[in-house]
# Entry
Amino acid sequence: MNKVNVIGAGLAGSECAWQLASRGIAVEIFEMRCENVKTFAHRTSDCAELVCSNSLRSHDPATAIGLLHHEMQQLNSLIIDSALQNRVPAGSALAVDREGFSKYIEHKLLATNKVKIFRQEITSLPIESQEKWIIATGPLTSDKLSQDILKHTNQQHLAFFDAIAPIVFKESINFDIAWKQSRYDKGNGDDYINCPLNYEQYCQFVDDLINSEKAEFKEWEKNTPYFDGCLPIEVMASRGLDVLRFGPLKPVGLTNPHFPKSPVGTPLKQRLEKPYAVVQLRQDNKSGSLYNIVGFQTKMKYGEQQEVFRKIPGLENAEFARFGGIHRNTFINSRELLDKFLRFKKFPNLFFAGQITGVEGYVESASCGLLAGIFCAQEILQNTQLSADFLPPLTTAIGSLLAYITTDPQLNQNNQRSNSKIALQPMNVNFGLLASLPENVKKDQRKELYKTRALEAIENWKENLNN
# Structure
């Protein structure tokens, strides 16, 4: 009987198992999280638990991440299916009820009758196994397995810090000050809760963030960099007074209904209906009882978080369901260690998938698991070596992201190594990764062309796989 073993029941592991099971292949998932074993960031033992935000970011296919959503949807993604089934209001973003999202995924996997889940930690790479294994342990890979991976790669892990945003109870928010509205009234028009800050309040808030007491790093963590796509809010604040106001606290597209319109010519700093900065909260569960503070990833100590965040107008009595936190993520140098099909070059019976490969983000991680599942299934069902025909096109978001983590950018067209050294860094999907468009395409037409070209290419690739 064909069987594949998957280590890790996160987003990548769950998606990988689904792709295999959907093709009739039996899967055994090994997940170390159980009732008595958690990680620093996880709260449950559920499949595909969302650790940081509950948002899978924009669902608009005119954005790179939205395009990846739609490509995955065409490829029968369980993660995207669950997100759509458990969607909560978030404007153009695809945000989900965390518990419902995870429960749906686990139910669908077990309902295939092809998937078994074992609550067991795998502490070493199964290099001597005759079966295929997919390592999808994510950025919080256990210490024992991390050390064994290190032993067999003879390379140091790369690492960066990631942070978690706090969550508050909706009933503790003061709606005499806060109001519901999406920027530019997108989505349902009222998908976010907004807390306004005037100029003086904003300046004091930035100062409080900078001077707050932070969590201490261990000695081995002190030289670990942050991932720029998920900076702690106090780090952003330290980079300049206006950084937050042009980032997660930008007030554009919002109007405070608690104040009448100011007379024409009133300076921005004095206009109350147009706040100087706005803290937004996004629904975190289906019932709408929990809201996370958007962009407020932090390494501040818990007591400091409560004190500083309660100074935000509308959150003066906020009750926290979860405080923010910070954890260390690790990933391998996939360009050196993996082939183009995510197989470990040294031991081709092992695949790697998800954030441990160097992709960054929920959806990107799941897309990597999706590809690993497809590649592994094709190898088993075709009973042949994979060829370049099985690679998704570089005109697609999923194909370009795969190429980013597995292709050596130091090789020029003549396959000769250049003198420059380009290090692998965690990467979210973006249009800059996709194959270039013709130079004569006008700027306002580029996103539409990226979208139509990619969705057509992914459909053709899917048909090619099925033939």
Q: What stands out?
A: The CA atoms of residues 97 and 287 lie 8 Å apart. The first strand starts at residue 3 and ends at 7.
